[in-house]
Amino acid sequence: MRVSMTGATGFVGSYTIQSLLETDHQLRALVRPSTDASWLEESGVEICRGAMTDELSLRSLVDGAEVLIHTAYESNPSEEENNLDYFRSNIFGSLTLLELAYQARVRQFICTSSTYILRPDVNNPREVNNASIDEDSSWVPASSRYLLHNAVLESGCQTYFRQFGINTTCFRCAWIYGIHPNLERTVWRDIIEHTRSGERYESKFGCDVVAVEDVALTLTASVGHPKAFGQVFNLAEMFVYNQELAQIAWSVTGNQAKVPEQRLPKPKPISSERIKSLGINFHRGAEGIHTYFKRLNQLI
């Protein structure tokens, strides 16, 4: 199939491109003019230069595409920066892309949002809520521009599916871990470095997590899949505290870091049962995080 994609040089996007390259799809990617896309070109990916705020570039991206995968996201600005730029790129850009996909008769629009729309991170064990959560659970009130963006994107997908007939698929991703193309931005690198130092590590922060390889595999599996049409999927494998991550990091580094063991209450996991309809089932668990930390420890 002819698949166009935003965010191809980013974290989730780069892994998804690699996954898609193992299929017979023809790929096109939206890439900023200043971004090095040589590895994409060498892999046979057609490059469309532009930004999410550039309507002409977006039109070129969707022209002739059968499937559009939207993973591009500009980081949330600080209070001192111009928030309109954030809205233009993320919220208005996403809705523009959705409308252009509809106009171009794209068969399927696939996008990523976040499980934060269902449950925030835990900063203290007292915040643990043991309510069951699945794809049909109510959203939490939007408390940030990021959550607002997720809510608008999901609402837009459901509207275009129900009212205009474009097959939309939305994946709510938990905290995604994996080796980032920019190693400095790799998640939990700070935990590895802290345990290496031998200093005491203690934290009560916890979050739902999922491996980036599993996100990429699921996005790829959804391309052209009838059971993905009009659906929202949760992508969350497990809930983990930083304290547990530090224990795993300690076992990998071998340093005598002080990581006190704590029995912290855990919420019920966010259900990702629906993705089994796509032939996907997460099973990495703590061993997957251990393998990830071993690789990260070798790289930094």
Q: What is the CATH T-level topology of the domain at 2-119 and 132-177 and 208-236 and 270-282?
A: Rossmann fold
Computed Rg: 20 Å
Quaternary structure state of the chains depicted: single chain
Q: Count of DSSP E strands?
A: 10
Query: What's the helix count?
Result: 9
CATH class of the domain at 2-119 and 132-177 and 208-236 and 270-282, please?
A: Alpha Beta
Short description:
The protein is built from nine helices and ten strands. The protein is α/β, with parallel strands linked by helices and 300 residues long. The protein has a domain at 2-119 and 132-177 and 208-236 and 270-282: 3-Layer(aba) Sandwich (Rossmann fold), CATH 3.40.50.720.
Task: Please give a structural write-up.
The chain is of the alpha/beta class. It has helices spanning 11-21, 38-42, 55-62, 83-103, 145-164, 189-197, 212-222, 242-253, 285-299, and strands at 2-6, 26-31, 46-49, 67-70, 108-114, 167-173, 175-177, 206-211, 231-235, 238-241. The strands form two sheets. A seven-stranded parallel β-sheet has the order 3-2-1-4-5-6-9, with helices on both faces. Helix 2 links the parallel strand 2 and strand 3 (46-49). Helix 1 (11-21) crosses helix 7 (212-222). It is globular.
